[in-house]
Backbone:
């Protein structure tokens, strides 16, 4: 693996934006009460910090070489699954239950799919700094989503 240099990574920016497009659509199109609820529940924590540092390292560090194309293909597959899961939410009238509901046997796909996408994208970019922070973020993000899904199930 090649060493990283502090330099804007255009592929890193593209990879990050590709995963954020459905989130931007959600912020623009979701019912206001869903957005308000998320804002109330938002506070600085390890999940937020690891996400922010991961995003920074993804776009601010660059490697001259790239990893196996297989990493990129796997990343694109999981990005596609992520988009399919968001499509399900929008197709079903922006019903909040689709944000945390399983897709097949995947318990919280909107937390799992983007993290797998970012893991393989980081491997493709040979950005081990981003990969390490992505793994930390994945742990906290998936744990949080599983807890939210469990609470939602208990309140039914």
Residues:
């Amino acid at each position: 693996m090649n060493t990283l240099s502090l330099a804007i990574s255009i592929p890193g920016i593209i990879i990050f934006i590709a995963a954020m497009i459905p989130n931007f659509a959600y912020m623009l199109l979701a019912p206001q009460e869903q957005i308000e609820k998320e804002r109330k529940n938002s506070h600085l924590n390890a999940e937020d910090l690891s996400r922010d540092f991961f995003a920074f390292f993804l776009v601010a560090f660059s490697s001259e070489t790239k990893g196996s194309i297989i990493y990129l293909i796997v990343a694109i597959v999981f990005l596609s699954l992520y988009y399919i899961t968001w499509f399900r939410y929008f197709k079903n009238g922006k019903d909040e239950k689709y944000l945390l509901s399983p897709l097949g046997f995947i318990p919280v796909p909107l937390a799992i799919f983007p993290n797998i996408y970012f893991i393989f994208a980081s491997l493709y970019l040979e950005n081990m700094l981003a990969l390490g922070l992505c793994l930390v973020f994945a742990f906290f993000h998936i744990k949080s989503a599983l807890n939210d899904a469990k609470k939602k199930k208990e309140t039914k």
